[in-house]
């Protein structure tokens, strides 16, 4: 058995993750916009007596590493010493992709080029002479269609062949102007006498990187006490000039190779330019986006409603069944109140969540979301956020955890911190069950509007937060917006459905483990100490709720709601689950909430507002800590959330009372 | 030479200069927005632009668009 | 591509008709939503009505552009009719879901025909020929030599 470690590298949105999935038989999510992968994902594939260990790198345009996700890719390429690098190239856009090739082929790691989406290129009338490409670059080129798995076997064969070679592969060399080669030669010579400091890098390559302006490498050498002549002494303008010469040399190489290898004929393309003119229109851009979102929410709620009623019916039937069977009252309570009541109240919302993920992934696949980011940039900029933050926000409506991870595509630290603090105000799918329950019970036909109001309120609080932090804490402008717009693609129903299924299954798994556990804990607290009336004030849950009740007295929450909020920290769905348990079962939850004299529509609304804003769940908290890198900002993010929740719930309660007159 | 942000939809231009030398200028360079390249403006909304270079499309916000100085093609 | 005449006279004329129907459908939805009139078989829906009017504005822009700028007409009417059809599909899902829920909850008032009542569906049906015609033109537009230049 021989381990072969390969890296999948390439520009953003060229299909790295799709290839990774078909190579390793897993189902990482892919989307039609740059920046889905922000972390290295590992998988493996067994072939005969070889074991391929595949790492999927974040997409990067170059190895310069200005953003954290690019830095992850750079570090992996330069320091992890893999057996081979597979660069995935978008066949419809070779020239731009080859720029990265010109950077990677100098590292000295064996490379293979996987020419992806050659079917799309054919459709668009782009003919690629792969042999010419191979001959010029001196790198094996394999045509693949990552989506269907075509060509994967040939790719694997090539990987094994290339890594099995005894001699190190030599790729095409880039012709730099004389002035540059002189510098590279001198610095290279100097560095070879300090080769131990360079780690895996060759002195020649390190010299090129230093001339290109690799600040990380320069700092690393500096920290080790190495003073590099020519670099430290030369004036910045001269260094910039050399960096530009290198850049131009790379582009020229990419252009030469493209001219030789790519032939164009007439083809059928959906002319993105024409469509962009409308979708990103000065006046129509934002209204079109809002209309799409409005429909997405309406469909989510209405189309999943029949399923919801059906599931409710089934769980109600089970509870009845359970109550008819003769058994020990303690076990009976455990089964009907704890298991069926708690879990059922969470499972009811599975359909809404499935539909929501389906719609989000369809929207993503079309390539519209990147346009939406452009359209929203001006708005985002005026509230002190970067246009790119918009995509993490949208992801946040599904789940805050990947949304917070997605902030890695932002360059400036201030932009990232502000975005991370505001993401938890994007109402994630887990909060939906709470709204559906309370809005359904207390607002009847107006439920849809109430829920829409909550989403809007979340966005509003996010705006206020961003403004406050940008104006008062960071006091600088968000960094300028640059983003690649992916081509439009017809959304594939199959891909969207698979994505929905995987996301939905994750939710179900959570419902099965975390939520079930949480619900059982609540049931135990509601039953113990032995002998108390189930879920009464005397139970442990009641005692905890009572103890914290005074804190929430100004908000008029009863103790059951307080207990729900505490357990909502495990996962927001647990709020519903634990209320289901405390009020004695899913079937009765709605009617008992409606009958509870301590509740009123306006209190319910304040409660929903509090749930929307207060604390991200444990999982999101963990990611916030990881991405912020310190507890200070993590603490600020949490404190700010609770503060906002309290204020807005209070405002809603008191302003709302004026209107409803309770 | 005029900044990219002052042109109108449909213009074809050649990049003549890129102001500044910071990260932003380098990012533009890596996307292929370099001196001498020809690009088409496919959308203009206030000071933001969408440009096309070959088969790639990029959205540039006001800050980035004003850094790129171009010369219109006739 | 700039062409001052539009050979597809009928399709262009149809854009005008679609513009008007979309606008009227939106207007009626809003009036019904505000309970000013209740006589028409159209779903009362204020936000939906606003979206219909927005789409009719896009169609109107297409009509205006079509006088001098053929690609402009094609792109605006293509996107507007695509949006209209997608939203019409969404409306069927939304109303279908609502009707199914009322049936499952055992209420007798459920009327399956209300699935067909959203203004989007009426406007959408009228826009189908335009969408088909324009999308053909759009693909023809894209067979440009730009990539080969």
List keywords for this structure.
heterotrimer, A: 662 residues, alpha/beta, Rossmann fold, Helix Hairpins, 3 domains, 6-stranded mixed beta sheet, 28 helices, 63% helix, C: 149 residues, mainly alpha, 4 helices, disordered N terminus
Radius of gyration of chain C: 18 Å
Unreliable spans of chain C are 1-6, 143-149
Give the beta-strand count of chain C. 0
Number of domains of chain B: 1
End-to-end gap of chain C: 15 Å
Largest sheet of chain C: none
Annotated CATH homologous superfamily of chain B: Ferrous iron transport protein A (FeoA)
Q: Helix/strand-derived class of chain B?
A: alpha+beta
Looking at the structure, the CATH topology of chain B is SH3 type barrels
| Strand coverage percent of chain C | under 5%
The total domain count of chain C is: 1
Share of helix among residues of chain C?
over 70%
Order of helices and strands of chain C: HHHH
With helices defined by DSSP (H or I, 4 residues minimum), what is the helix count of chain C? 4
The CATH class of chain B, by name, is: Mainly Beta
Biggest sheet of chain B: strands side by side, in what order? 1-6-2-3-4-5
Number of DSSP-assigned strands of chain B: 6
Percent helix of chain B: 10-25%
Count of DSSP-assigned helices of chain B: 2
Report on the structure:
The complex is a heterotrimer of chains A (662), B (74) and C (149). Chain A has 28 helices and nine strands. By secondary structure, chain A is α/β, with parallel strands linked by helices. Chain A has three domains: 2-164, 3-Layer(aba) Sandwich (Rossmann fold), CATH 3.40.50.300; 178-264, Helix Hairpins; 286-475 and 497-660, no CATH class. In chain A, the strands form two sheets. In chain A, strands 2-3-1-4-5-7 form a six-stranded mixed beta sheet, with helices on both faces. In chain A, α3 crosses α10 (236-261), α19 crosses α25 (586-595) and α26 (601-613) packs antiparallel against α28 (631-660). The longest helix of chain A is centred in the middle third of the chain and has 40 residues, at 285-324. Chain B is α+β, with helices and mostly antiparallel strands. Chain B has a single domain (2-72), classed as Roll (SH3 type barrels), CATH 2.30.30.90. Chain B contains two helices and six strands. Chain B has a six-stranded antiparallel beta sheet with strand order 1-6-2-3-4-5. In chain B, a hairpin with a 2-residue loop joins β3 and β4. Chain C is mainly α and 149 residues long. Chain C has one domain. Chain C has helices spanning 9-33, 46-66, 70-104, 119-142. Chain C is elongated, with a radius of gyration of 18 Å. Residues 1-6 and 143-149 of chain C have low confidence and may be disordered. Chain A binds chain B through residues 61-62, 64, 66, 92-93, 95-96, 99, 213, 236, 240, 243-244, 247-248, 251, 272-273, 276-277, 280-282, 285, 370, 373-375, 377-378, 381, 387, 411, 477, 479-485, 487, and chain B through 9, 21, 23-24, 26-32, 34-35, 40, 42-46, 48, 50, 52-64, 67.
């Amino acid at each position: 058995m021989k381990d072969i470690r390969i890296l999948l590298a390439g520009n953003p949105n060229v299909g790295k993750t799709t290839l990774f999935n078909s190579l390793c038989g897993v189902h990482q999510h892919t989307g039609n916009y740059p920046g889905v992968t922000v972390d290295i994902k590992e998988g493996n594939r067994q072939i005969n007596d070889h074991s391929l260990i595949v790492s999927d790198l974040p997409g990067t345009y170059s190895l310069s590493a200005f953003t954290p996700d690019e830095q992850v890719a750079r570090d992996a390429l330069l320091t992890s010493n893999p057996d081979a690098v597979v660069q995935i190239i978008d066949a419809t856009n070779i020239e731009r992709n080859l720029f990265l090739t010109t950077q990677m082929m100098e590292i000295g790691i064996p490379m293979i080029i996987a020419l992806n989406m050659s079917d799309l290129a054919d459709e668009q009338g782009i003919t690629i002479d792969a042999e010419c490409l191979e001959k010029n670059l001196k790198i094996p080129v394999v045509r693949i269609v990552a989506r269907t798995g075509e060509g994967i076997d040939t790719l694997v064969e090539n990987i094994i062949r290339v890594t099995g070679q005894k001699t190190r592969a030599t790729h095409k060399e880039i012709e730099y102007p004389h002035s540059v080669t002189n510098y590279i030669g001198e610095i290279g010579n100097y560095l070879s006498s300090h080769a131990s400091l360079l780690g895996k890098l060759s002195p020649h390559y390190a010299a090129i990187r230093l001339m290109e302006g690799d600040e990380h490498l320069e700092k690393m050498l500096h920290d080790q006490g190495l003073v590099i002549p020519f670099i430290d002494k030369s004036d910045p303008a001269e260094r910039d000039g050399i960096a530009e010469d290198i850049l131009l040399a790379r582009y020229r190489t990419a252009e030469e190779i493209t001219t030789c290898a790519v032939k164009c004929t007439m083809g059928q393309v959906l002319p993105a330019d024409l469509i962009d003119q409308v979708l990103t229109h000065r006046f129509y851009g934002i209204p079109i986006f809002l209309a799409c979102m409005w429909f997405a929410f309406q469909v989510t709620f209405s189309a999943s409603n029949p399923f919801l009623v059906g599931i409710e019916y089934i769980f109600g039937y089970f509870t009845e069944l359970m109550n008819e069977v003769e058994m020990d009252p303690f076990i009976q309570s455990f089964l009907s109140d704890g298991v069926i009541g708690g879990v059922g109240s969470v499972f009811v919302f599975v359909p809404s969540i499935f539909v929501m993920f389906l719609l989000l992934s369809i929207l993503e696949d079309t390539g519209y979301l990147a346009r939406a980011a452009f359209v929203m940039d001006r708005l985002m900029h005026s509230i002190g956020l970067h246009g790119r933050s918009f995509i993490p926000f949208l992801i946040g409506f599904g789940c805050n955890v990947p949304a917070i991870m997605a902030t890695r595509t932002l360059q400036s630290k201030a932009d990232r911190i502000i975005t991370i603090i505001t993401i938890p105000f994007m109402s994630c799918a887990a909060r939906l069950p709470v709204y559906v329950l309370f809005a359904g019970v207390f607002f009847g036909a107006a439920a849809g509007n109430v829920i829409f109001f909550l989403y809007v309120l979340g966005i509003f609080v996010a705006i206020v937060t961003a403004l406050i932090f940008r104006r008062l804490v960071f006091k600088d402008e968000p960094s300028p917006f640059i983003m690649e717009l992916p081509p439009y693609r017809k959304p594939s129903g199959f891909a969207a459905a698979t994505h929905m299924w995987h996301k939905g299954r994750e939710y179900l798994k959570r419902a099965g483990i975390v939520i079930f556990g949480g619900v059982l804990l609540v049931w135990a607290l509601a039953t113990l100490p032995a002998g108390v009336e189930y879920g009464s004030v005397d139970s442990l849950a009641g005692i905890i709720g009572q103890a914290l009740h005074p804190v929430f007295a100004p908000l008029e929450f009863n103790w059951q709601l307080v207990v729900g909020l505490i357990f909502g920290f495990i996962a927001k769905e647990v709020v519903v689950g634990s209320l289901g348990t405390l009020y004695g079962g899913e079937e009765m939850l709605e009617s008992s909430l409606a009958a509870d004299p301590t509740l009123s529509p306006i209190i319910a609304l304040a409660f929903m507002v509090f749930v929307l804003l207060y604390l991200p769940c444990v999982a999101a908290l963990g990611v916030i800590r990881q991405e912020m890198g310190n507890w200070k900002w993590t603490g600020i993010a949490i404190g700010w959330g609770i503060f906002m929740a309290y204020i807005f719930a209070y405002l809603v309660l008191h302003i709302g009372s004026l209107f409803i007159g309770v | 030479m005029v900044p990219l942000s002052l042109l109108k939809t449909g213009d074809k231009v050649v990049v003549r200069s890129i102001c500044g030398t910071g990260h932003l200028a380098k990012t533009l360079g890596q996307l292929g927005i370099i001196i001498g390249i020809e690009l088409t403006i496919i959308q203009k909304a206030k000071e933001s632009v969408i440009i096309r270079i070959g088969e790639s499309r990029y959205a540039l916000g006001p800050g980035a668009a004003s850094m790129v100085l171009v010369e219109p093609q006739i | 591509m700039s062409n001052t005449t539009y050979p597809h006279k009928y399709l262009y004329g149809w854009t005008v008709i679609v513009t008007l129907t979309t606008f009227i459908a939106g207007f009626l939805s809003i009036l019904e939503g505000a309970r000013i009139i209740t006589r028409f078989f159209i779903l009362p829906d204020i936000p939906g009505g606003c979206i219909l009017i927005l789409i009719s504005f896009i169609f109107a822009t297409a009509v205006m552009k079509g006088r001098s700028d053929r690609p402009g007409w094609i792109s605006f009417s293509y996107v507007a009719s695509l949006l209209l059809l997608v939203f019409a599909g969404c409306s069927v899902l939304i109303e279908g879901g609502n009707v199914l829920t009322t049936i499952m909850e055992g209420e007798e008032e459920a009327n399956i025909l209300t699935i067909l009542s959203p203004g989007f569906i009426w406007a959408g049906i009228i826009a189908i020929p335009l969408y088909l015609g324009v999308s053909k033109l759009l693909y023809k537009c894209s067979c440009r030599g730009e990539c080969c230049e």
